[in-house]
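> @MW can you paste both from yesterday?
MW: sure, first one:
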Amino acid sequence: MQEREIKLLFKAGVFESCQAIPISMSRGWTLKFVTRDNEVVVLNLQRSKGEREFKSLDGAAAVAKRIGFEWLNVQIGDLKWREKVS
C-alpha cells in the first residue's frame, strides 16, 4: 500500500501500531502496519508493488512520524521495544 493511502487509513483510526522489522542485518528495515483487526499492511514503493526498504531505523521512524504515528515498535528476533518518534 502507498504512503498516502496508509496516511488516510491512519487518520480514519484503522491502525493499532506501526512496526519496524529488519530485512537482514546488512540490508535495512521495513515498516509494517497492524490494523485493529490484526491484519498487517506493508508499505510499498511508490512506483512498483515492491516492499519499501529503509537503510536506517531513523529513516523508517521518520516515515512513521510523517504518517502520524507517535510510537514505533521495533522487533529484532525475540528482542522487542518501543521508540517515541515525535
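MW: second:
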Amino acid sequence: MSEYEIRSVGGHVEVYTQGGVFLFSADTVREAMEELDEAA
C-alpha cells in the first residue's frame, strides 16, 4: 500500500499520492477514498 495525504480544499477533496494528485468533488473524505478505490 502506498502512502498518501488527504486535504479538503475549497469544496473538494485532494488526495496526494506518489503517482500524482487526485481531485474529488466528494462531500467527505470517506466518499473520496471510495472513489479512489474504484478508480484503482
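> thanks! The chain has one domain: 4-39.
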